[in-house]
């Protein structure tokens, strides 16, 4: 039997035109936004649009030549670019009504058909409507189920506030007599909800022009707030469930030696997606519409692509921006094969125990600092968390909370976010006591496979001697056989290559300028001091990368990263650590929280003895 070739090629042609139609709809709205902004600043163009709007002409969809309509068109273009289904529905309804109205007027009024501009406007709007229909399947990104209720609340609540403020402004500035309160409320409501021309139908209300502008500005903000609430992306879940955590621990037992940051995937403010085979997983958290993964995928390398595909598919489905913080070179290579771009953030300092030595001229400063602290009577005790009795662990938790710099919990990609949890028994604790036996500092490391440790937490008494943290690190390397370790991951040095190469002979002008900028910023964020503090151990430097899909998303990713790491706290952002663990019988509540300002691969173990406030997260 012969095949119907035409019936097979028709769907293929439609599939080719769908993405093109979606792109056309986005660019249509972008052009509309530009024309609206142009009309807002150009009086001749604005008068032309106004003449068309008030006469027998019709401007194309979204062309009203004002800042409000321009902001609306630009916002809709952004939502359509992210393939938001709600934005597509909004445009289809509004454009469809506009097309119906134009067709009705063209059919009923001959004078309307006489103007060529009306036919041009109708054609352009019909093209937009057709593009929306053809590209329907391209707009698949889901919104949060609570968006309609939130948008309605924003419309009612924001409108009520706008009417209240507008009524107050009208009452205070009205220059005419004889107006009643209901008239002023009606006037403010008309301005807030309809943008009616000033003074329409209200002879007893005469107010300055700036009052109308202020009410209109509030109206525009309320409208954009409603649109944001209507189109916002789902937040995603915040915590690992017990089954997910169990599966992650099983993967770490088999493949945990690959990535020093692997254990941090067990943070309970992260979500996880497993590959179809269950042999690999991507840990992530959704912050401000950014699906922020951390480190390399967990598990078998052969199964990484399956987990990454599921994570990217989920991001596309919900219009989340995909990004990866702190991927290794191996992980970054696999992510890049899935269409992500890489940007080097800095380097992780890794010390091989067998290769570390205090001998030699290069280690003279470190050797002297270590001997100085040792002569002062300080000692270091190294134990697994599981070997610490409950009462002693409780004391350590209390001291760690006392020494934390501020109340903000910091860390996401390179911090565990809890201390003393019964499930973290393989973590290693370093306790430093002075000559009188008083506890003066703590270091906590998470497992890195079977023979490695990764720095998680640094806390110390601010009144202790200089170089104390440095002394503890060297003592750990000296007592490595006690806990059976061969390698230790210390701090993250942001932009290390810039400091190293920019100071060498022959460095180019751009590199020298970039180094000067970082040196200037180091006055506040200790970027350069982190590099120098770690370089003295002569470590192996392992680069870490930021992965992203589009360069235009970098500002948004940076803001989401700062929020996740705890450097920016949004008022609406829930606390990261609602479940803080201690060694209580039930295993929950009451203990120390996660890594604070001195946590997360932590602080600078420097001989200067400065307060350790920098973290290993790639945020300055």
TrEMBL record:
It is found in: Cell membrane. This is Phosphatidylglycerol lysyltransferase domain-containing protein. Keywords: Cell membrane, Membrane, Transmembrane, Transmembrane helix. The keyword Transmembrane helix applies. The keyword Repressor does not apply. The chain crosses the membrane at residues 21-45, 57-76, 88-110, 116-134, 150-172, 213-231. Residues 583-620 are annotated as: Disordered. Residues 587-597 have a biased composition (Gly residues). Residues 603-620 have a biased composition (Polar residues). Its main location: membrane. Residues 249-547 form the Phosphatidylglycerol lysyltransferase C-terminal domain. It is a multi-pass membrane protein. Pfam families: LPG_synthase_C (PF09924), tRNA-synt_2_TM (PF16995). Residues 24-231 form the Lysyl-tRNA synthetase N-terminal transmembrane region domain.
């Amino acid at each position: 039997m012969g095949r119907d070739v035409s019936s097979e090629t028709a769907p293929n042609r439609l599939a080719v035109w769908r993405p093109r139609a979606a792109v056309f709809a986005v660019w249509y709205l972008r052009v509309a936004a530009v024309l609206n902004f142009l009309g807002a600043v150009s009086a001749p163009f604005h008068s032309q649009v106004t003449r068309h709007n008030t006469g027998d002409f019709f401007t194309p969809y979204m062309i009203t030549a004002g800042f409000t309509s321009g902001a609306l068109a630009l916002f809709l273009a952004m939502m359509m670019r992210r393939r938001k289904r709600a934005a597509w529905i909004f445009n289809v309804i509004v454009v469809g009504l506009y097309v119906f109205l134009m067709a009705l007027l063209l059919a009923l009024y001959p004078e309307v058909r006489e103007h060529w501009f009306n036919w041009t406007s109708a054609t352009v709007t019909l093209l937009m409507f057709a593009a929306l229909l053809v590209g329907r399947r391209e707009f698949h990104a889901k919104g949060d189920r609570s968006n309609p209720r939130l948008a309605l609340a924003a419309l009612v609540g924001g409108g009520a506030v706008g009417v209240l403020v507008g009524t107050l402004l009208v009452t205070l500035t009205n220059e005419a007599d004889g107006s009643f309160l209901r008239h002023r409320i009606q006037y403010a409501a008309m301005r807030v909800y309809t943008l009616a021309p000033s003074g329409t139908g209200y002879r007893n209300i005469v107010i300055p022009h700036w009052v109308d502008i202020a009410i209109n500005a509030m109206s525009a903000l309320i409208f954009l707030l409603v649109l944001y609430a209507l189109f916002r992306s789902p937040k995603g879940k915040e915590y690992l469930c017990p089954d997910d955590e169990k599966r992650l621990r099983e993967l770490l037992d088999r493949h945990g030696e690959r990535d020093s940051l692997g254990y941090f995937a067990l943070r309970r403010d992260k979500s996880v997606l497993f590959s179809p085979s269950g042999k690999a997983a991507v840990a992530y958290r959704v912050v401000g519409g950014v699906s922020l993964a951390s480190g390399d995928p967990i598990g078998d390398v052969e199964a990484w692509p399956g987990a990454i595909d599921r994570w990217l598919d989920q991001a596309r489905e919900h219009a989340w921006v995909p990004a990866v913080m702190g991927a290794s070179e191996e992980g970054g290579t696999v992510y890049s094969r899935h269409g992500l771009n890489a940007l080097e953030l800095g380097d992780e300092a890794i010390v091989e125990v067998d290769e570390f030595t205090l001998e030699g001229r290069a280690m003279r400063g470190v050797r002297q600092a270590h001997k100085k602290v040792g002569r002062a009577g300080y000692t270091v005790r190294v134990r697994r968390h599981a070997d610490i009795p409950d009462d002693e662990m409780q004391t350590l938790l209390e001291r760690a909370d006392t020494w934390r710099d501020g109340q903000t919990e910091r860390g996401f990609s390179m911090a565990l976010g809890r201390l003393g949890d019964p499930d973290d028994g393989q973590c290693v604790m370093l306790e430093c006591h002075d000559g009188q036996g008083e506890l003066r500092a703590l270091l906590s490391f998470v497992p890195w496979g079977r023979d490695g440790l990764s720095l998680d937490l640094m806390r110390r008494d601010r009144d202790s001697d200089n170089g104390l943290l440095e002394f503890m690190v060297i003592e750990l390397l000296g007592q490595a056989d006690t806990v059976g370790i061969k390698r230790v991951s210390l701090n993250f040095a942001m932009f290390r290559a810039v400091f190293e190469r920019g100071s060498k002979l022959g460095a180019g002008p751009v590199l020298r300028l970039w180094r000067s900028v970082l040196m200037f910023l180091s006055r506040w964020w200790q970027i350069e001091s982190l590099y120098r503090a770690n370089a003295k151990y002569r470590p192996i430097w392992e680069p870490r990368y930021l992965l992203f899909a589009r360069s235009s998303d970098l500002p948004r990713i940076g803001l989401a990263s700062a929020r996740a790491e705890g450097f920016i706290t949004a008022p609406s952002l829930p606390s990261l650590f609602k479940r803080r663990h201690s060694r209580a019988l039930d295993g929950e509540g009451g203990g120390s929280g996660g890594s604070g300002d001195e946590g997360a691969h932590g602080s600078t173990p420097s001989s200067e003895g400065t307060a350790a406030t920098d973290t290993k997260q790639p945020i300055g």
